[in-house]
Structure formats: C-alpha cells, structure tokens
Amino acid sequence: MATEVELHVKVEIEGGIGWIRFNRPEKMNAIGALTRQQLGDAIKQAERDDAVRVVVLTGSGRAFCSGADVTEMVQGAAMRTPEDVGNVLRNEYMPMLMRLRTMPKPVIAAMNGPAVGIGASYALACDIRIATPEAYLLEAFVNIGLAPDGGVSWLLPRLAGTGVAYEMFFTGKPLQAADAHRLGVFNRLVPAERLEEEVRDLANHLASQPRQAMAGAKRAVNHAITSSYEDAMEFESYLQEAQAASPEFAEGVQNFLARRAAKK
Amino acid sequence: MIGAMGYEHLLVDVEAPIATVTLNRPRVLNALSPDLIRELTTALSELDADDSVRAVVLTGGPKVFAAGADISDMADRGAVDQLRRDQTGRWAPLAGFSKPLVAAVNGYALGGGCEVVLMCDVVIAGETARLGQPEINLGIIPGAGGTQRWPRTAGKYVAMEAMLTGQPIPAQRAYELGLVNKVVPAEVTVEIAKRVARQIAEKPPLAARMAKEAVLKAFESPLSEGLASERKSFYFLFATEDQKEGMHAFLEKRKGVFKGR
Prior knowledge:
The structure holds 2 protein chains of 2 kinds.
Chain A: E1 9-14, E2 17-22, H1 33-48, E3 54-59, H2 70-75, H3 82-102, E4 107-111, E5 115-116, H4 118-125, E6 128-131, E7 136-138, H5 152-160, H6 162-171, E8 175-176, H7 177-182, E9 188-189, H8 195-208, H9 211-224, H10 229-244, H11 247-263
Parallel strand pairs in A: 2-3, 3-4, 4-6, 5-7, 6-9
Antiparallel strand pairs in A: 1-2, 7-8
Chain B: H1 2-5, E1 10-15, E2 18-23, H2 34-49, E3 55-59, E4 66-67, H3 71-74, H4 79-85, H5 92-95, E5 101-105, E6 108-110, H6 112-118, E7 122-126, E8 130-132, H7 146-154, H8 156-165, E9 169-170, H9 171-176, E10 182-184, H10 189-201, H11 205-218, H12 223-237, H13 241-251
Parallel strand pairs in B: 2-3, 3-5, 4-6, 5-7, 6-8, 7-10
Antiparallel strand pairs in B: 1-2, 8-9
Helix pairs in contact in B: 6-7, 7-8, 11-12
C-alpha cells in the first residue's frame, strides 16, 4: 500500500460503541481538508450504522482537537478567499455538527485534552462531555482576529450562560476544566488514565438503554430548544404516544414490574 | 382498500365521519403522474358526494408526501401538447373540494406535491417535512397554483425565495412562516391529522363548508365583496337545522348532534 491515505480520523466499532478519534496527534489533532472529509464520513457512517448505538468523539495524544489547521487556512487551496472560509463552514462543518446534535443516538465527547476553536464546537455539539482535568475549552477566534463560528454563539450561551460565553469570545482565554465542570459544561471530570474506562462504562450503559426512548429524548430537546414551552410540551406528548406504542415501553413496564416483585 | 375502491395509485380508507386518501406510489416517491391525478380527483369527487364523510385527510404516508410530477413523462413534450393535456387544470376538483381537507406531510412535498399541500385547508407536518418548488431547476415554473398560493400563504418574499432558488423549506421553518399548522414527530403525523379531521367532522358540516368557502373567498375577492359574501353565508346558516341544534345545545349545556341540514 504505497499510496495509503493518511488517517486523520480513526473509527473503531466495538460492542455497540462507535469510537471516532481525531488522529493527528503531531498536530494536536488540527482539522484540515482531509480531516473534514474523513470526519464527515465517520459521523455519517456512525449515524447510519445500526450496530453503533452510542458514539464517542475523542482525540489521540494530548489534545482533543486544536481547531482548524491555520497553516492550511493561510496556505491551502481550500480557503483562498473569505467566501471560501464561509463556504467551508456552511458546506462542511455545518452538516457534520448538525448531524452530531440530531442523530438518533447518544454522542459523548471524551475530552482527553484541550478543545480549541472549531474543536470546541465539536465538543459542545456532543450530548455529554466527560473530561480530564487537563482538558479546557478555548474560543481562540479573537486571537487571530476572527469572530466565533461552528455554532458556539448558539451553544455556549446555552451551556455556560451569556456572560461566560462573552468573556471567552472577547478574551480568547480558556475555560478550564474545573470551571467548565462547575458550570455544567463538562458533565464529569476524571483522571486521564481513567478517561477511556469511564467513558466506556457510560457508553456501555447507554448502549443497553432503550434506543428509541433515547432518540426520543434528543428529538424532544432539539425541538424544545427552538420552540415555546407550550409547543415543546405538545411535541413531547406526541413523541410519548409513539413511544407508548413501542415494544420498548411494553418491555420496560414488564421489567419494572418484575424488578418490583423481586424486591418484595 | 386498494382493490375495494379500484385505485391503482391511491389508498382510500373511509372511517366515517372521516376518510383518508394516501398517495401510494412509494417507489417513485409518489410522483404525480396523470393517472394518479385522475384517480385522486375521482376519489375526491366521490368523497365530496359521500354524506357520511365530513372531513378528509390527504397524505403520502410515512416517508414522502409527493416529490413532484413525473418528469420523464414531460421532458420531451411541446407547449401545445401540454396545454391540451391541461394536467395542471385537472387539479380543479381538489381546489374546489367542499369539505375540509387536512394534509399530513412527511418528507418531501415538492413541485406539484407542494401545490397539493397548498390546496389543503389545514397542514400537519412531520419533522421530516420539506416544502418546495424546485421547478426553476428544470427551466419551468410551478403550474398548479404555486406562484399564486405561496404569496397568499407565506408572503411575497418567502414565495420569491421558494420559486427563484428552488430550495425546499424544512418543517420547523415552514411552521414559523405559517405554511403549516403544526410540526409533530413523523411517526404520528397521519394520526394527528386524522384527529384534527375528526375534530372538524364533529362540527356542523354546512357551517364548516361555509367557513371554508368564506376563508378561500378572502384570496379571491376585494374585502367588501368578501364581507358581503360572508354576511350572506352567515344569514343562510340561520336557515339550517344544525344552527338551531347548535344554539339550543349550547343553551342546554349539552353537545350538539349535527345532521348537515
């Protein structure tokens, strides 16, 4: 295999868990054109593959993802004009990030290290974030004279509040793991050596949960976030009807009753 | 019901007081062929005449509403040929259907499919619904009312964007624009539409018919004419048994039973 393509993104599927790993440790997992292509394919595959019940997004080496490959932005062919920058966001990043947020299965960010720029966008687009104390979020855009992108103007105020978001956008300084955890942006902090194990445990647990019920939770949350309280509750009620008609509910109730009987 | 009613491209399911018509050419995304249009307009004429039916749900099923016309059938036709076939004019029985029509839309409603939606009275959209007029990509424009009903429904600029870019509008945005009444999970779209139809079917049918006519009149006439016509319908309804029943039931705090007389 003389012409083997570099693997910027590694995918492993084991026991219902699809691990998608940024795989350019020598570049702190910076995202270039090839990365985007491979990442897009990996995310699409993970969504489509029924054998994948839970998706984990993580990085190899010290970083989760250091963001867009700036050398490529300056020298590369893909982003020669300002319009190219916008096009890459609209045509490449947007579909991928939307897919992470809306695919009907849980997506966990296993944050082995810093998530910077568009890297932070990926971390924040996941449903749950488990991080090491070395991980941080950095909206570095302002440091190179850019405004935020990759959906963080929408995600970060919702996750951390407007004040924290603005401070990050204005100063270009990191939100450290402890603060992110305190704010609820990171669900959990675990030591680096235990990160994979903890994430695997959680992912295994989620892989055993009723998948349509979890998918329903994502649909409900994503619908609610852009609608009124009233609309959201009405939408929930219809989702619940669909769910109440599913074998998952019949089975769930049976199991519940069996467990209760066993306790007596 | 496919055999029972003798339709090849439709399922017609009458559960009085409602009926559900399902476009049923899933392999071609319910493309609106001349045969399908003929069947649909025939079915609607029959349902319009059937007194046991008071409201109708029109759907394309769980995956797609209708992804436009049969392009293969049109590609090499000439103008005169098209005019003679008057495919678009054949939609008149749908536009003129006298009973309330509830559209249940999942997936694509494109071109003619979208124009069919615009001829319905209430639209329930699944999350997956996409409404659009992509005709411009083929060097034509909508021909079954799209250019007229979009601006009357969603305003000039939304209509222009849809016609000129050909880009379909997703369900949630369609809801915000007032193009659809409700967005629901796709699994229950048809069921929710049926409930809305049943709710409407409980109402006095003559009043429902007059209400539908009056609202549609708003798109066709100057205000003074619309108001005059509304007033006539209003007085007319006092000549019906259902009006007496409705008002007495209200006063007696019971539910009215309406006969359509």
